[in-house]
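Lab meeting prep.
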Amino acid sequence: MSRVSHVSAGSTPEESELVAGIRARRGGKLLNLDRVLLNSPPFARGWNAHLGAVRQDLALEPKLRELAVCAVAVLNGAEYEFEQHEPEWRGAGATEAQVIALRQLAPGVIPAEFDEVEAGVLQLTVEMTRAVKVREATFERVRTLLQDERRVVELVGVIATYNM
């Protein structure tokens, strides 16, 4: 149950346009998150633009993006977020074994079901989520594995976004 009231449609033409934009990005739907954010149209507008870019415009592979998102959800006990993103992660290539292993994720233990790049993503996600400060060795490992500054920045941004 939400602690904040849900808004289903804008009361002004500007707010109606905002709702239409959110629906367009979400395939015609409004999630409960959207309905809460619509209590503040400026916040909802910014959130929709930011998350639209995160979900649609990144060079970072969808499987790595969704792995990071799902790992943040597991580490923070955010079951709603996991439920929203697990199908996206599976659609991007996650296996049943990976989903099961991720649900058991604990800081300091990266499950064997993940390849070297995925393990680097998980380590960075754990450190950013649990310790906030990332060890230099972890950051350098991710930089080497991703081989592209843009993808590194995007991964850090995805982890930060979903921790927000």
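Slide two material, second protein:
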Amino acid sequence: MSYIKSSQEIEILREGGRRLALVLKEVAAATKAGVMPKELDALAEKLIRAGGDEPAFLNYQPDMARIPFPATLCVSVNDAVVHGIPGETPLVNGDIVGLDLGLKHRGLFTDAAVTVAIGKISKEAKELMKITREALELGINEARAGNYTGDIGYVIERHVAPHHYGIVRELSGHGVGHEIHEEPYIPNYGKRGEGMKLKAGMVIAIEPMINLGSGDIRLAKDKFTYATKDGSLSAHFEHTLVITDGAPEVLTR
């Protein structure tokens, strides 16, 4: 499989990313106190299918999973880092909620995530979300032909470190397009000049996952949800983008 996408494939991914961004924006707007994550999942699937597309995560079975993922939308609340299965416990004021969504448009995949505040949240939660969002933007700026995946991880780690947050090391950004997860592996830490060299035409997803406490995580009993080991809050933001000879093109903006 080539990790370099053709101009025709990039055009399909561009439209898929646009559609995904619109769906995720609408789902985020519906993420409020009293709403059940299961309702958000139903909304995400309805909007994706209304556009003639397919949910990327529904029934997706990673190599390490024993069963397929049972939902369209990953909903990760408070100490859940990623891959939260949407349930029936209503959201409440003070929660922070990670929404991770993938879409398949004309056979090609895009992937994006945001963390949403429910009502008034703590100063600590607000700052965690701000720094994580900023880390994503810094990582995106490093995603240029001639740079390395380590350059992306380096700037993310450097931005997060002064705040003494935990960087999740077991999970990472990744290539995307032909499959939901492709090479290259893009950790949210690293050294300049290390890792895979980036080339124009690569399509990647950058996704810092940052914890208010340590970076240690645990796998929940549902065998999908990763949560912070110390029970601290976690924030997650993600975009799919195309590597070019200049500034990257963010497809899911």
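Talking points for slide two:
The mean pLDDT is 97.
The helical segments are 7-29, 37-50, 123-142, 149-160.
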